[in-house]
Amino acid sequence: xxxxxxxxxxxxxxxxxxxxxxxxxxxxxxxxxxxxxxxxxxxxxxxxxxxxxxxxxxxxxxxxxxxxxxxxxxxxxxxxxxxxxxxxxxxxxxxxxxxxxxxxxxxxxxxxxxxxxxxxxxxxxxxxxxxxxxxxxxxxxxxxxxxxxxxxxxxxxxxxxxxxxxxxxxxxxxxxxxxxxxxxxxxxxxxxxxxxxxxxxxxxxxxxxxxxxxxxxxxxxxxxxxxxxxxxxxxxxxxxxxxxxxxxxxxxxxxxxxxxxxxxxxxxxxxxxxxxxxxxxxxxxxxxxxxxxxxxxxxxxxxxxxxxxxxxxxxxxxxxxxxxxxxxxxxxxxxxxxxxxxxxxxxxxxxxxxxxxxxxxxxxxxxxxxxxxxxxxxxxxxxxxxxxxxxxxxxxxxxxxxxxxxxxxxxxxxxxxxxxxxxxxxxxxxxxxxxxxxxxxxxxxxxxxxxxxxxxxxxxxxxxxxxxxxxxxxxxxxxxxxxxxxxxxxxxxxxxxxxxxxxxxxxxxxxxxxxxxxxxxxxxxxxxxxxxxxxxxxxxxxxxxxxxxxxxxxxxxxxxxxxxxxxxxxxxxxxxxxxxxxxxxxxxxxxxxxxxxxxxxxxxxxxxxxxxxxxxxxxxxxxxxxxxxxxxxxxxxxxxxxxxxxxxxxxxxxxxxxxxxxxxxxxxxxxxxxxxxxxxxxxxxxxxxxxxxxxxxxxxxxxxxxxxxxxxxxxxxxxxxxxxxxxxxxxxxxxxxxxxxxxxxxxxxxxxxxxxxxxxxxxxxxxxxxxxxxxxxxxxxxxxxxxxxxxxxxxxxxxxxxxxxxxxxxxxxxxxxxxxxxxxxxxxxxxxxxxxxxxxxxxxxxxxxxxxxxxxxxxxxxxxxxxxxxxxxxxxxxxxxxxxxxxxxxxxxxxxxxxxxxxxxxxxxxxxxxxxxxxxxxxxxxxxxxxxxxxxxxxxxxxxxxxxxxxxxxxxxxxxxxxxxxxxxxxxxxxxxxxxxxxxxxxxxxxxxxxxxxxxxxxxxxxxxxxxxxxxxxxxxxxxxxxxxxxxxxxxxxxxxxxxxxxxxxxxxxxxxxxxxxxxxxxxxxxxxxxxxxxxxxxxxxxxxxxxxxxxxxxxxxxxxxxxxxxxxxxxxxxxxxxxxxxxxxxxxxxxxxxxxxxxxxxxxxxxxxxxxxxxxxxxxxxxxxxxxxxxxxxxxxxxxxxxxxxxxxxxxxxxxxxxxxxxxxxxxxxxxxxxxxxxxxxxxxxxxxxxxxxxxxxxxxxxxxxxxxxxxxxxxxxxxxxxxxxxxxxxxxxxxxxxxxxxxxxxxxxxxxxxxxxxxxxxxxxxxxxxxxxxxxxxxxxxxxxxxxxxxxxxxxxxxxxxxxxxxxxxxxxxxxxxxxxxxxxxxxxxxxxxxxxxxxxxxxxxxxxxxxxxxxxxxxxxxxxxxxxxxxxxxxxxxxxxxxxxxxxxxxxxxxxxxxxxxxxxxxxxxxxxxxxxxxxxxxxxxxxxxxxxxxxxxxxxxxxx
Length: 1492
Description:
This protein is an alpha+beta fold. The strands form 8 sheets. Strands 2, 3, 4, 5, 6, 7, 12 and 13 form an 8-stranded mixed beta sheet that branches. Strands 21, 22, 23, 24, 25, 26, 27 and 28 form an 8-stranded antiparallel beta sheet that branches.
């Protein structure tokens, strides 16, 4: 065929296209393309013709939504554009590519292409702006699809301005822009503006095309859609019918545009409740689309969904779900699983399941829809707002009103910002919020929301829209619920008037209003009026479709009740019979519908499904097996001369391979140096810390989690465990639950970045884009330096021998940011090459892995370790907090041998939570989608997990106890709610139970915990930090020696790295030494980055980075070694030494909280430490207040160290019977700010105070310390309360009045001048700010206790006369006097006779009567029941609370209570005590007492 014949076909195709015969146009264009491709040789004219044919084909395929074919022909056109080097053609191809991406939902990609097109057009336009207008128009369509309606209108206006200037105001292109603007205004709910521009479009089209053109029909369709949204259904139907008339006369009867018009008419019938007519129209639309477009075209999706919506409104939810699934199948196959059209179908499925009452099934569909919408549209889009609205509706139906309100408020805010304050969709959300309030019984709020909805609808929709009637109807229901029946009837009247106008007097919705009016009359006991209204409803429903009669039996029953009230029994019986008759008829019809689907529509659908199945059966499965030939080795022969020649060639090949290896090594070396300078990747590793009270099974859970065998009678964890008892520096791979070596993770990260750098260099070389030296210098703003890769012969002697055997003689240049100063500086290259040789030999064996990893640690739960945890805690970790599900939260902690400790499980959990959460200073939050809901969490994250599941009767018991714990933590520590995720996982770690069921349950718990960890880790900011690759290299240098059990190749590399460590790395290093090491191996990029790197490694637990102030710091590179040293000094078990001296020193430490340097030296003997290392360790422990030196007055005396946490809890309290004791002054925080002061902080506070008041006279007992103040001869007592530090001071009682007065005056003067309370407060503040950065904003205050209500009150509201304090307790609010004002603050003189007053304290040595002997024998047997016993002994509640506060140990609390009762009852004490014991079922104690 000649070129002229092709041109003829092309012209015929254009004619068909102009006459809207698109099918024939496609045929001609396709023939023309086939013909032109068969012509031998090409000319510019032929290429131009082929290009024009391809563009027209692309446009037709786009209109038919055949995106695959559109993309194919567009790519061919692009090749011709490239060949011609005409930028105009390139821009035209970009326009088409952008449209293809828009249809696919790739909006960012579409905008990228359209903007590139504009850039090209602006450069070549030379004043021709029409092409630019087209690009603006295309961008406007993308913005409209994204829901960026304001932006869409703006760029449409830009395009319109150009078109009006260039073409005038009667051009069809101008009409097209008006039309598109009208569609956007319609979506915005700006219906008047929409009609204005659409009518402008219509006017231009009529003037240009006449009144009977398909384009006119399309505009009628769009105007009809606006009318439909306004509720002007008759007007809308009239417009669509005008459209249909034009289309039927000008288009083929099966044209897709006609199908769209049938579809739109069906939507109107659906809104009017004319469901049969709606289905009839949709069936016509479906039939045309199937015949013309096939059964897998995306145009079918809307039709299937619309029919499904009709069925949903009819209550035929199963049929609706069937059709929505059909739409989904097409959408997924054609559009893909990330397209907004698929998201819309997901939402339709959610609506159907919600309508069905299957709320749990509805929610996942909405979540799928939301996931796509967020990915495609970002955070703000009307479709996202709609999905939030729908989710809120589900929650409302589930009676989850708080969740519903949260979703609806999100929807409301988004709609308001995107659509303005007067959009119908905003009114819909107000309407649903009102429904939630109504369901909650908050009727006034409901009315307020309904009114907001109503006002918007009246403005936008007018006063006669069915939605207005619906709102009046629902307002009536609220009034009815309030008992305001007159107001309710008024609203029903308004609803009825609107419905009669909009829907006619036979519509089922009119019947609903009559029914509602009947209910109101019935509640008013106006039974005749009620019957009249019910009858009107019945008359309408009897003539309605069967789907609308479901409410009819209920109305008959209500009529029967009214007749009963009027004593018209026969009529009541008649109504009940009618109710039963209708119910039976409805059931029969429902059964028939379920058994038969013989409607024309279902016949059509069934035919479609059969056609799909036939297509599937006829598909051939291609053979994907490669045709590989297996060599036949059965007949081997003696090598011939030809074979020997081949052997010679092999040797040549081997030499060539060696050269290639050298060249490859050179490439990698260049890439390695560039990676060291510039490479980074996201962080991959985080620590997962197992924590919790002692003996709760943390280690066992870790063993189950890492699939290790459980151990019988496992030893308790001491301080922290990262040893091989559970995992030895292994990490837990989150994707597949296997363990990996941390070094392998770091090495793989280095390999990945270097490989990327190498590939980039190769690409640059292949494309001739290699950056020269001067260009690189400009890019880096640093001097250019040339580097030569050294051979072995070039290297100077080093302490570390080279292991490289490569003989590279090829000089390699590389430009970087000034590592070396000249080309001859070999030492700078050596620092690269030595480390490079660690990586290169195994490069090809390594795999790139983008996984994330959790490195598991186990913290010891014993209280003596709390202060030692500080060096190992990190705010950038995730924590698993374990508790014993078999123990109640207020029980005392039990040891392995059954001994009860002083602390409760609640106090232990408070200790851990405060220590963990306080360590992270960030106030930011992260949004996490977990358990199918998005929740904001604060950092750090703490996951609650339980142990001892084997002790529970059933799973429900575990959940019950878990909930009890949650409530306790919420009540006691509400501040931490946003940090805690309650997993409700209960592990069975009984090593004797390894049944299959138990193993399955352990696996389930592990997988659940793994999933939770993964979910949180993926969104943590710490995991998104870019980590320079040189940090990983430095970490490898500092890491513990590598296990040399791998291959020989790795042995060599590992040996080399270990030699580097042996020569350069010490277990404890200064910051200056680390800096020197980094510089030596080319890894130093400045002081600030070095500190950041060490902080990162500290967060991972790879080093201990201890800042000492200024630029001084101490770095421990072997953390495990440090832990062993800590364990040697801070022993949990009995002293193992046979030396009597050591046993004495150990026992003395546990009784006094002090250890000698002799004890420390003995503990460190096995480590062979030099003096400098030993001093460094002690200095490190002192910097963390783990040790505190007590030097005393005599400098020659042996140094002792203060270790209050080593004190055994059974040490007796102070005997203060011979002392005057001040009132208590409290220092602390409001519980809502800091719920708990940890033991670690308290013991550090004691150490800090000791440094302030340095002397050897320090006495301790549980949570209490007594410091002697030498110059004024008194003691300062510091106790720990829950969230306060308690201060008292005491001084000796003297019998001589003059001496007593003098001592008292001296002590008070010392308190006034030296203000020890201010010193303690300041030190506590510094400690909290340093170690608990989370609470830096909390205010540290003084408190005193109210003498009326016994609550703590901030010491600030002091009365004008200075003697009275205003209580802060809202239930008290009384003025009271406090001794603390005189003892600590005010210091008014006291009468002399006060010196002889009896003070508080355990009077263990003051009372020697017979009753005291009884008390000493029995007080330890009573335990926590002492408070109930006290009540039986008539002890006042305020006294009980004071005793409980003053003494932390329960036994001492009981002892003090009994002593006070002894003073009160005296001779009657024993008999009263026996009676009280019997009433409290303490017969065992009674029997012992009676024997005394």
